[in-house]
Amino acid sequence: MNTSLRRVILEMGTGNDLHGGDYTKAALRAVQDALHHSSLAMLRALKVDPRDMVVQVTIGVQRPEKVDAERVRASLPHGQVTVSVVRGGLDVPDPDRDDPAVIASAAIAVSLPLPSGGLAP
C-alpha cells in the first residue's frame, strides 16, 4: 500500500508579551493557544503513533530574528517538529516608553503518512 504525507490538522493561535518585548515568549504563548484548540483523539482512533506526526510550526512576528525557534520546537509534545519564523504578527508601540506589546501568530500543521487513496476502503 502506497502512503503519502497528508495534512490532517491545521490550528492557529495568538500570543503576546505585553511588557518586555519578548518575541519568544509571545511565540510560545501563540503555540500553546493553538494547541489548546486541538485534540489528537483522531490519532488514537486511527492507531497512529504520535511520534509519526510531522508537525510544521510557522510563527509570525515583526522581528523574526528575536524568536528562539529551538525553544518553540521543544515546547511541542509530539511528532517530528520543524519551526519557521516569518515576518508577521504585530508590535503595538507604547507612546510613553520603548516597551512595545508584541503579538505573535502561530499556525501548526500536522501531517500523517496515510494511504494514497485516503482513508476510505
TrEMBL record:
A Pfam cross-reference name: Lin0512_fam
Keyword set, alphabetical order: GTP-binding, Nucleotide-binding
| Top-level division of the source organism's lineage | Bacteria
**What Gene3D superfamilies does the database record attribute to this sequence?**
Tubulin/FtsZ, C-terminal domain (3.30.1330.20)
- What InterPro entries does UniProt report for this protein, alphabetically? CHP02058, Tubulin/FtsZ-like_C
- Cite the PANTHER family for this sequence: 50S RIBOSOMAL PROTEIN L34
Q: How is this protein named in the record?
A: Lin0512 family protein
Tell me which species this is from: Paracraurococcus lichenis
